[in-house]
Amino acid sequence: MEGGRFVFSLNREATKISIPHDEAFKKLLETFFQEFIELFFPELDAMLDYSETRFLMQELLVDIVGEEARELDLLLETRYKGLDGYILIHLEPQSYKDHEFRERMFIYFSRLFERYRKDHKLIIPIAIFTSDEVREEQDTLEMSIPEHNILRFQFLKVELRKQNWRRFIDSDNAVAAALLAKMGYTTREAREVRREFLRMFMKLRARLDQGRLALIMSVADLYFKPDRAQDEEILKELINHYPEEGEAIMELMPAWKRWGYEEGIAEGIEKGIEKGIAEGIEKGKAEGKEEGQAETIRKLLLHGFSPEAVSKAVELPLDEIKKLM
Description:
The chain is α+β, with helices and mostly antiparallel strands. The protein is 45% helix and 19% strand. The protein is built from 14 helices and nine strands. The strands form two sheets. Strands 1, 2, 3, 4, 5, 6 and 9 form a seven-stranded mixed sheet that branches. Strands 7-8 form a two-stranded antiparallel sheet. A hairpin with a 2-residue loop joins strand 7 and strand 8. Helix 6 crosses helix 8 and helix 11 crosses helix 13. The longest helix has 20 residues.
């Protein structure tokens, strides 16, 4: 059967959503489309054959009376196992309250159906609600008269703030890491969420290239609120609890610099993590890992720690530290 093609559509509301957020979110969905479906729609995931997925050119949809045109930034098609053919999917992120959103989704659906109905037997619209508020988003548009339903249109949806963040921290899903800060958590849990994100990020380093890692970090940066004191504490904890990941933790520093470390590693940061560094190195020394100690010292120097700070932390003469530079 030649039938249906799957179209993934991301619409830009330029007047409502800032371009950096819109573009970053779009790129995340484009790069990790399969991971997104796996994470939030496992039943749909089981029906898709991602090996035949491709992006289409931008699509322009005009409403029924022709007064409004919207450009769909991202179009994607893939194969649907149940129909042994291609289907359409429209994916729409929504960050603000819009009482006409259901109608807009139906208009998009109608335009797509009108244009592709001869070749595509199934259209699946999906809305992603990214608002900071927790509210019940309506997903159904109905019309009826007594004893007769004229229309019942319902799209799939995911409301990020209603997702319990703890469900995702053991996942190796890139989308789960990138969007963890948009999940539901209390103010008291914010610090723990931050820490778990960095732990998830370190796990992803083993299988993702630098470009994809940078994308995950850039999206997460949109949602995490900078807190220098808290970041210092978290970095210290990670070094203490995961000494074997010391190199990976240090590699996070370029991203952290964007939140106030542009002038290098400040004296306060050095003091805040000296104890953790020393403990980690002392543990290595106790296990006879002199080479590991030297390598750790090199990494610290490479990532901006002054020779004096390293000397103090590891309790070695400054001259010996400088020999490793």
